[in-house]
Amino acid sequence: MPQIIEFPDRPYIGVRGTITMTTFGLVADRIGEIIGWLAERGAHSAGAPFLRYESVDLAADRLVVQAGVPVAAPLEGEGDLFAAVLPAGRYATVTHHGHPDQLFGVVEALLKWGEEQGLAWDMTEKDGAEHWGCRLELFQTDPRVQPDLHEWDTGLQFRLA
User: Fold this and answer.
1) φ/ψ (deg, to 5) at 48
2) Which of 50, 142, 148, 161 is the right S-S partner for 120, CB 3.0 to 4.6 Å?
3) Which residues cross the membrane (predicted)?
4) How many Å apart are CA 23 and CA 46, to the nearest integer?
5) Looking at the DSSP assignment, which residues form a beta bridge with residue 86?
């Protein structure tokens, strides 16, 4: 059952890419690189790595997505890694246990639940694309510890307007 949770600003280091539904790896696969980059600087993640959806245009199969790793204190970015902040606010959240392939249905259910609750998302539509203030998919399972995708926990956090 979804919940509404209030979050403070959360600093992170991220990388951005424009991808299609089949090229997620171009962005998502860089999470390990970000974690390594942090470790080289004596920093480490302060929470679950995530994908942040900035813009979603399913008709054109074009998504602008960030891969990010939360940090305890803000750091300077380097190269195409940048420092940013997940904005404070109220988020509708739900956790999915199972294969990430099933997330599409979980996202649909969360959006429908929000509609039924009369909630407004931090999202604007323009030229057929959804532009999100903060829409997150958090990887709560470490694949090195649990390689079975069917046992993964993935959190969704969608910011409310």
Assistant:
1) -70, 135
2) 161
3) none
4) 27
5) 10
Of 11, 81, 9, 10, the closest CA to residue 40 belongs to: 81
Euclidean distance between CA atoms 141 and 86, whole angstroms = 20
The one-letter code for the residue type at 117 is: Q
pLDDT level of residue 81 (50, 70, 90 thresholds): very high
Cβ atoms within 10 A of the Cβ of 128, count?
Answer: 10
Whole-structure pTM value: 0.95
Question: pLDDT class for 143, splitting at 50, 70, 90?
Answer: confident
Q: Which amino acid is at 86?
A: L
Q: What's the CA gap between 106 and 96, in Å, rounded?
A: 7
CA-CA distance, 135 to 158, in Å (whole number)?
4
Determine contact, residues 46/13, Cβ cutoff 8 Å.
no
Contact 44, 50 (CB under 8 A): no
Q: Exposed, middle or buried, 125 (CB in 10 Å: 0-12/13-18/19+)?
A: exposed
